[in-house]
Amino acid sequence: MCEQRYIKVNQIPYLYPLKDDPVGAGRPVPWIQMKGHWLDQAGFAIDTPVTVRVMEGCLVLTAETSTDS
């Protein structure tokens, strides 16, 4: 299954002071929201741990599966 979803990077104020910028609290930071039944259908059920790989211009989300048998 390979579907494309189109979302937008929004902004939200970051309400916590940063160690290297204590005055920066309240400055906007990028924010991505994803929700919907399509996440569950893609293997991202509620409470599923997710690994995020970060590359320039690319985020890869991987649902972590339990290996306990």
Mind explaining what this structure looks like?
The protein is mainly beta and 69 residues long. The protein has one domain (10-63). It contains 1 helix and 4 strands, in the order E-E-H-E-E. It has one helix at 37-41, and strands spanning 10-13, 28-31, 50-55, 58-63. The strands form 2 sheets. The protein has a two-stranded antiparallel sheet with strand order 1-2. A two-stranded antiparallel sheet has the order 3-4. The mean pLDDT is 87.
Over all CA atoms, what is the radius of gyration?
Answer: 16 Å
Distance between the termini: 26 Å
Morphology call: elongated
Please give the count of helices: 1
- Briefly note the structural class of the backbone: mainly beta
Total strand segments: 4
Overall mean pLDDT: 87
The SSE order reads EEHEE
Low-pLDDT runs: none
How much helical structure, as a percent, in the residues?
Answer: under 10%
Major sheet characteristics: 2 strands, antiparallel
The number of domains = 1
Instruction: Tell me the β content.
Output: 25-35%
Major beta sheet, strand line-up: 1-2
Q: Which features does this protein show?
A:
two-stranded antiparallel ribbon; elongated; 69 residues; mainly beta; 7% helix
